[in-house]
Each structure stands twice: as structure tokens, then as C-alpha cells.
Amino acid sequence: MIPRIKRLETLPNLRLKVEFDDGRIVLYDVEEDVREIPSYAPLANLRGLFSSVQLDQSRTCVFWNDEIDLPSDTIYEYGRELVPASLATTM
Question: Can you tell which superkingdom this protein's organism belongs to (predicted)?
Fold first, then answer.
């Protein structure tokens, strides 16, 4: 099953904070993709592009334009899992 995104937030240094329908929250570092995938370079070079990220209708892909997108399963698998705030306060 493809994970569906519930919330999406851009953070400094080309990072995304993503919450999925199953409650998992991850931090995904897009900077690594910018270094390795030539078509992602505008995310670092064009002012405001990174913060204009959108979620597609199916909630299974984020995109910036017609050439730059990122599937939710990649974010889910390779993102660094964050501890939800409700659990962090009880630890």
C-alpha cells in the first residue's frame, strides 16, 4: 500500500517534515537529492521554489513543478522518523 501524506511542511536547509495517515512523521533531506539528481538543482538555486511544494490530489506525491517531484513511498522509506511530540513529553 502506498503511504498517503496527511501534512507537509518545508523547513530550512531543503528539508521536509511529512506526516503520514498512519501517524508516522519523518524528516526528509531533499538536499541529498539536489546534489545527486541534476533536475533537482533549481530547488537550491531558484529563490522560493522549494517553499512552493505542493501535494498531489492522491496525496502520494509532492511536487514543485512539472519536472521535480518526490513520491510518498520514497519519503516514507528514506525519511528519518521523528518522535511525535506527545511521546517525547512522556519520555
Answer: Bacteria
User: CA 77, CA 66: separation in Å to the nearest integer?
Assistant: 23
- 84, three cell numbers: 511525535
Q: Judge: domain 5-88, CATH 1.10.730.10.
A: no
> Cα(58)–Cα(81) distance, rounded to whole angstroms?
22
**pTM for the full predicted model:** 0.88
For the chain, give the secondary structure using H, E and C.
Answer: CCCCEEEEEEECCCEEEEEECCCCEEEEEHHHHHHHCHHHCHHHHCCCCHHHCEECCCCCEEECCCCCEEEHHHHHHHCEEECCHHHHCCC
Res 66 pLDDT > 70? yes
State the cell numbers at 12. Answer: 530550512
Q: Which three cell numbers stand for residue 63?
A: 511536487
